[in-house]
Amino acid sequence: MKRLLFPALLATLLAGPAGAQEEEDPGRIVRNTINQVLSVLSDPALPEADRRARVYALAADRIDFTGISRRVLATQWADATPEQRQRFEALFREILLGSYWARLRHYRDERVEYVTVMTEGDALSTVDTVIVTDQAEIPISYRMERVNGKWMAYDFLVESLSLVTNFRNEYRNLIKLNGLEGLLLQMAKEVEKIEKA
User: Fold this and answer.
1) Can you give the chain as a three-state secondary structure string?
2) What are phi and psi of 151, to 5 degrees?
3) Which of 5, 94, 128, 148 has the least C-beta neighbours within 10 A?
4) Cα Rg of the chain, angstroms
């Protein structure tokens, strides 16, 4: 999966619902989120630093970074120390949000069409959408699960390619070469580059 597509798909999940009824419906959560994020992006009175801060805050409320981190590390999660898990999650969060912001800050009127919502039981759901740009229509699915009573995103599929699987494969290879500590060092360097950009 191309990392540049992640920003377009994450934009649809970066805010909380407007009320309790929406909390019960993942499709409404996605729809409300889009409206809130687009409102932040289109406000000409907000300096870029403020827009970035607001978007980051909204993301922290809707993305299950622990769940994504656990799934990305897979079997390495069980072998990692609590301190390594914490470092991985913090670094991974910054990498995702940083790459998202790098793309999102150049937002140019993409639109989102809602296709289907499929819920499995009362804890898992997939929301299918299509991002429509001038050049393409990009199908995006959001995998969500109820975490402590709240719907949270734990994976994103762009054209059927999983964000979690993509990072898992990349990081597994880096761990084989340099171990988990080596991966954490490389991630820290990537975060430094993001912060300087």
Assistant:
1) CCCCHHHHHHHHHCCCCCCHHHHCCHHHHHHHHHHHHHHHHCCCCCCHHHHHHHHHHHHHHHECHHHHHHHHHCHHHHHCCHHHHHHHHHHHHHHHHHHHHHHHCCCCCCEEEEEEEEEECCCEEEEEEEEECCCCEEEEEEEEEEECCEEEEEEEEECCEEHHHHHHHHHHHHHHHHHHHHHHHHHHHHHHHHHHC
2) -70, 125
3) 148
4) 17
Report the CATH architecture of 5-109+163-196. Answer: Orthogonal Bundle (1.10)
pLDDT at 180: 97
CA 138 to chain centre: 16
Cα–Cα distance for residue pair 118/143, rounded to 1 Å: 10
CB atoms within 10 A of CB 99: 17
> Quick one: average pLDDT of 140-147?
92
pLDDT at 149 over 80: yes
Contact assessment for residue 153 and residue 142, using Cβ atoms and an 8 Å cutoff: yes
Q: What are phi and psi of 165, to 5 degrees?
A: -65, -40
Helices 82-104, 163-196: axis angle to 10 degrees equals 80
**What is the model's pTM?**
0.81
What CA–CA distance (Å, rounded) separates 30 from 147? Answer: 16
